[in-house]
Inverse folding.
């Protein structure tokens, strides 16, 4: 059985990432990219679907583990009857080929250690051909090839379609394992010295982390979340994957299992705010540039998500040979929500580009023409129903958040031209649209009897996305309707002191059976809204409770189950970490939002 979601730590090289369990097993790794087929897929099946365990022969779970300083280098320590041993796991920022490096170091005594490698390409379905070559083991199947070697060289043997190495380390001794992927038609990649690579990786991460400009009371949590965002960044393009995984369930045993290894436009503005306010301008600019490339083209073809290089075809299919995490099937690859109509993304794109402009990023000459085209399309579409922020698979509705973000699009377009009159645009038409959307939302999306905005026009259901109304500037935080909405969401969507995004059991809005946990990003939004409405003490209490939900190395999944006391959903989740950063910044008076 795989570990609990929070039992995993993340390592990565800014192009892909691996999940390392407390028992020393790497149970998830896609090579060469985040969205490639997994060669270790035990996370969604069992050990027969691929994993790499490196741990003492005696001992199941580690004593302690932690990232070394402000880096993505993971140290895991075991105490055994014969001594203490440490395993250091990391992926150096790649030159050409991706490497996974694992260094075993004796701390005291003498400790017998075993490496057990089961490579299974294409999400655990393809058994590679394994051979020896120059003291290496080479696994080849179709387009994939993986080389495994040790420094110093150790004997390896095959058994039960796996590759083993048994050895003993004494105090002060170190053994390095290097696993390297390359395309099977290409030549062997250059050899990497594991010990030199460790020093270089530590230096690279410490140098990067030193750029963080936040120095408030939550610096440690903020910087760890910044490092996690960086780790989810696909360096060649600047795109940020929503998570490193697919199909980790929102309900154990349920069907709400989706592929999150893509880039969502809904995350754009909030992510930009976090990066800019945290001092990471180059990352923010790379994300903005990815956004401009991804959405270029006919505005009618705008998608809610794209691949990490801007790919549009994210065809969804099921992987039947994987039984799913803790029996949560189906396992899905790709995401059909890419084809949905979600009107809010137009607002999120224009809000992001407005924020980029006001943050001092260099202008792209074509960016304004693109924004004008988006506005021209939205003017004709904003009155239509859509699938909404949460990508429901039920009927389209007039979601309040979608309309609010249409207002944001018009507002940012107007404000851009007002600040820069040299830019061309039908500002009078946009002002008229802004007024019309505002009036309609306040009339049709607001329940006067309960003093709250609802999930959709005519619905009694609530939606945590309405907590963003003051944050985007639709209404001031002091407005009684905002205050009433905050109270209603807090009361009716409460789940163990945290916040659900909506009530999945009520009304069949999302077209799916089952339930889900508290949505962590929405819980951070509640803290933001409480702070904005003058209840900073309550906001701080909620924020600090949210910090306790992180695992021992500071990582968050998408959701939290307050009954079982465990994390749920894809992991680590960029949106959750963005929420943490932005709430910490707001509570410290450092929020960069200009909405």
């Amino acid at each position: 059985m795989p570990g609990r979601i929070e039992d995993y730590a993340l390592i990565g090289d800014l192009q892909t990432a691996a999940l390392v369990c407390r028992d020393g097993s790497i149970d998830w790794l896609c090579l060469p990219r985040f969205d490639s087929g997994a060669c270790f897929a035990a996370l969604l099946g069992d050990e027969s679907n691929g994993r790499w365990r490196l741990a003492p022969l005696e001992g199941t779970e580690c004593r302690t583990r932690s990232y070394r300083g402000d880096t993505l280098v993971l140290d895991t320590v075991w105490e055994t009857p014969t001594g203490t041993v440490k395993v250091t796991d990391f992926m150096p920022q790649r030159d050409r080929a991706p490497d996974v490096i694992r260094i075993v170091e004796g701390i005291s005594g003498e400790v017998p250690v075993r490496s057990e490698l089961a490579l299974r390409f294409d999400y655990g379905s393809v058994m590679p051909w394994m051979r020896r070559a120059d003291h290496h083991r080479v696994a080849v199947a179709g387009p994939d090839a993986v080389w495994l070697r040790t420094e110093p060289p150790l004997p390896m043997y095959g058994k039960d379609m796996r590759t083993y190495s048994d050895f003993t380390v004494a105090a002060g001794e170190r053994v390095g394992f290097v696993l390297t992927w390359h395309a099977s038609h290409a030549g062997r990649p250059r050899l990497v010295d594991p010990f030199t690579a460790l020093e270089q990786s530590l230096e690279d991460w410490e140098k990067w982390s030193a750029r963080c400009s936040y120095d408030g009371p939550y610096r440690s949590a903020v910087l760890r979340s910044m490092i996690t965002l960086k780790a989810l960044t696909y360096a060649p393009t600047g795109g940020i994957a929503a998570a490193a995984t697919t199909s980790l369930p929102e309900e154990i045993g349920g069907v709400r299992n989706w592929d999150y290894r893509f880039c969502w436009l809904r995350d754009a503005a909030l992510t930009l705010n976090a990066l800019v306010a945290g001092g990471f301008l180059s990352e923010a600019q790379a994300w903005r540039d990815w956004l401009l490339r991804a959405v270029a083209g006919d505005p009618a073809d705008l998608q809610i998500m794209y691949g990490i290089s801007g790919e549009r075809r994210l065809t969804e299919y099921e992987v039947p040979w994987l039984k799913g995490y803790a029996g949560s099937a189906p396992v899905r690859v790709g995401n059909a929500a890419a084809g949905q109509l979600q009107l809010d993304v137009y607002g999120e794109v224009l809000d992001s580009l407005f924020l980029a402009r006001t943050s001092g990023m260099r202008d792209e000459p074509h960016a304004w023409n693109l924004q004008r085209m988006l506005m021209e399309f939205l003017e004709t579409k904003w009155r239509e129903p859509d699938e909404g922020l949460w990508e429901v698979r039920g009927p389209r509705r007039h979601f309040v958040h979608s309309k609010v973000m249409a207002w944001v699009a018009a507002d940012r377009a107007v404000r851009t031209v007002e600040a820069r009159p040299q830019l061309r645009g039908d500002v009078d038409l946009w002002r008229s649209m802004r007024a019309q959307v505002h009036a309609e939302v306040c009339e049709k999306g607001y329940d006067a009897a309960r003093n709250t905005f609802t999930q959709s026009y005519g619905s009694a259901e609530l939606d945590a996305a309405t907590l963003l109304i003051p944050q985007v500037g639709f209404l001031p935080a002091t407005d009684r309707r905002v205050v009433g909405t905050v109270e209603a969401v807090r009361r009716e969507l409460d789940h163990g002191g945290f916040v659900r995004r909506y009530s999945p059991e009520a009304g069949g809005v999302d077209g799916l059976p089952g339930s889900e946990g508290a949505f962590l990003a929405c819980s951070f939004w509640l803290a933001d809204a409480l702070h904005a409405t003058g209840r900073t003490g309550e906001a701080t209490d909620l924020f600090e409770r949210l910090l306790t939900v992180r695992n021992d190395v500071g990582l968050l999944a998408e959701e939290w189950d307050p009954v079982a006391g465990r994390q749920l959903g894809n992991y680590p989740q960029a949106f959750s970490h963005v929420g943490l950063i932005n709430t910490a910044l707001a509570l410290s008076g450092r929020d960069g939002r200009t909405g």
User: Anything to note?
Assistant: Residues 557 and 571 are 4 Å apart (CA to CA).
